[in-house]
Amino acid sequence: MKDQRLRKLLDAILVPVLAILSGLVVMGILILFLRKPLFESYAILFSNGFGCKAYGNCIFITALERATPIILTGLSAVVAFRSGMFSIGQEGQYLLGAAVAAWLGYAIHLPPILHALVLLIAAMLVGAAYGWIPGILRVKLGVNELLATIMLNSIAALIIEYLVQFPMRADRSTAAHSPVIDESAQLMSFLPGSKWGVGFVIAVLAVIVIYIYLWRTKPGYEQRMAGQSRRFALFGGIPSDSAAIRAMLISGALAGLAGAIEVMGVHRRITTGFSVGLGFDGLTAAILGQTHPLGVFIVAILFSGLKLGAQLGLQLNLDIPRELGGTIIGFIILFVAAGKLYEESIVRAREWSARRRARNLKGEAP
Amino acid sequence: MEGFFSVFTFELLNSGIRLATPILLAALGGALCSQAGVLNLALESKMLLGAFVGILAAFYLGNSYAGLLVAMIAGGLLGLLFAFLYHKYKVDLVILAIAFNLIIVELTVFVMRALFGNVGSWSDPSIERIPDIQIPLIHDIPYLGPVLSGYNIIVYFSWLATIVMFIVLYKMRAGRHLRAVGENKSAAETVGINAVLLQTLALVISGALAALGGAFLSIGHLKLFTRNMSNGRGWIAIAAAMFGVNHPVGVFFASLFFGFADAFSVRIQNVTDWPPNLVKLLPNVATLLVLIIIALRSKIALSMARRRFRAQLHAEEAARPAEASS
């Protein structure tokens, strides 16, 4: 029994691990193309993405902080994908959640914990509402949810730019930004000088809750069945339409939550260019993490480390453009998608090890 | 409001047609793929690749027309890679498109910065924009002339491509075979049609067309490259292909619609003091509305077909006793 479970786990992580290794090889090729030192680059990438210089001065802590929104948007994508909705609307839901949190953060004044709770809930509601739009369009009319969410993402991004530049603008400085939110609405951080804090705990809780919801409850089961096969779900009496809508509501709420945490825990306001593709990172984390909450959690931390390493390490030390990080992540998804590339060699390796084991057994028998 | 009405000028027509061109080229490619039964969601990345490769080749070869050619070759090669991964390794085309979108967005900026230093956008004075051409006789027609003439070669090419695609798809054997593959791949294969070859061809041509659309942005319309220059036009092109029911002529008018939405939002910023960010919403909102219209249309078509089928059944049932008695 235990052996089988281990086998399953190995199967699940084998392709992503091979994909990540292949991605690092591509990175090496790009670095050689720039005529930069290869091994030094790898060392700098990892020490600047995951390393620790001294107690309390850990870049890994920063990686955890940056991973927080990616975990949540990744979970958002997992809920949607598992329920058969190919929604990539996390970016738009994230942005609207952030905008609502930033607005309520300075517009209303409440006692400490209550204020933060109100912001988180409001952002989740707005995110859910923005996720509901493509959901209802898909279920009632059959509008392609991929295209609809892409358009909704650009719409949200433009609305945010407008809000920051006009109604929510704090002053006439060159870079437009909204006023700083009240202290009562800010999320606490664990270490002085770091922004890694309560937000991360919320993200971890969300990983657990979503896992339990999808794999241990009836509505979650309905959603996964609706995602795997609509017809089977219908045959089994599962209302797949309402399952899909529910998925989009939860997915939107998670992405909205990510936006609120980013505002309340890190930036304390929204600025122009607040959208930096975090929703898209979540999507990537969901694909690479085998659309499993735990996979998303691991991949999100790995991603933010890689990005930090590329940004702080490679760009500053070796003058390698920081887009290297994003490029590698793109290649990693490509290699995951092309998992069949590896399967042939995996099958061959397995046959080889089975034959060897059989030979060993024969050797022991007499 | 006075400012608002001064938007409607000849220039709006001209810039609408210009801005429709990259969408039209990519949408024709998308329609071709749909007709061949392969989902091409990667138009955006092919466009961006074309924009970047086009301006690079124009710079290094010293000739912008050569830039267009190289961009088309690059887009075609990317299409070939897609076809290879799809047919040989059965890679999911949606995830492949998402992966390539990310790779091309980041890799183009990476290469730009590696070659030209830490810049946000790049141009060089030596690069020449593709020149506008006046068509001799047509140009002199009153009113119509200035609308139909005075564009660069890519615009005319996109019109030509629309006509050629119509002829190939509906009047020639290869086109009929391609549509047969799209209707039912295995049925087409049993009668000896090489489905893999036709689908590969569709992906390659669509890559080349989308890349040319991208090159139009970097060396045909403007004369520079910036991060994520295609800015969602590839996705709009997919909607345009659907809106035009994958028929070249339908796609042509659908693309014009999006081109005008784009031009309108650009021009209205010049003549009114409406907040630019909200005006820029227009093409996106238009696309969303079009997606809803497409869905409604197919829903109505389905229910009509169902009603026709039922009516036919009733008619047959009514006819049967009569047959039996006679």
Give me a quick take on this structure.
Chain A has 366 residues and is mainly alpha-helical. Chain A has helices at 2-33, 38-50, 59-82, 90-107, 112-141, 145-165, 198-216, 218-228, 230-235, 240-267, 278-288, 293-318, 323-337, 340-364; strands at 52-54, 57-58.
Topology:
The complex is a heterodimer of chains A (366) and B (326).
Chain A: H1 2-33, H2 38-50, E1 52-54, E2 57-58, H3 59-82, H4 90-107, H5 112-141, H6 145-165, H7 198-216, H8 218-228, H9 230-235, H10 240-267, H11 278-288, H12 293-318, H13 323-337, H14 340-364
Antiparallel strand pairs in A: 1-2
Chain B: H1 2-5, H2 10-35, H3 43-61, H4 64-89, H5 93-116, E1 121-122, E2 132-133, H6 136-139, H7 144-148, E3 151-152, H8 153-171, H9 173-183, H10 185-190, H11 195-221, E4 225-226, H12 233-243, H13 248-271, H14 276-279, H15 281-325
Antiparallel strand pairs in B: 1-4, 2-3
What can you tell me about this protein's structure?
The complex is a heterodimer of chains A (366) and B (326). With 366 residues, chain A is mostly helical. Chain A has a domain at 61-295. Helices cover 76% and strands 1% of the residues of chain A. Chain A has helices at 2-33, 38-50, 59-82, 90-107, 112-141, 145-165, 198-216, 218-228, 230-235, 240-267, 278-288, 293-318, 323-337, 340-364, and strands at 52-54, 57-58. A two-stranded antiparallel ribbon of chain A has the order 1-2. In chain A, β1 and β2 (57-58) form a beta hairpin. In chain A, α4 (90-107) packs parallel to α6, α4 crosses α10 and α7 (198-216) packs across α8 (218-228). The mean pLDDT of chain A is 87. Chain B is an all-alpha fold and 326 residues long. Chain B has 2 domains: 2-279, ABC transporter involved in vitamin B12 uptake, BtuC (Orthogonal Bundle), CATH 1.10.3470; 287-326. In chain B, 78% of the residues lie in helices and 2% in strands. In chain B, strands 1-4 form a two-stranded antiparallel sheet. In chain B, α3 crosses α11 (195-221). Chain B is globular. The mean pLDDT of chain B is 89. Classes of the chains: A mainly alpha (366), B mainly alpha (326). The A-B interface holds A 30, 33-34, 86, 88, 137, 141-144, 146-148, 150-152, 154-155, 158-159, 161-162, 165-166, 280, 283-284, 287, 321, 323-327, 329-331, 333-334, 336-338, 340-341 and B 41, 85, 89-92, 94-96, 98-107, 109-110, 113-114, 118, 232, 235, 238-239, 242, 275, 277-278, 280-281, 284-285, 287-288, 291-292, 294-296, 298-299.
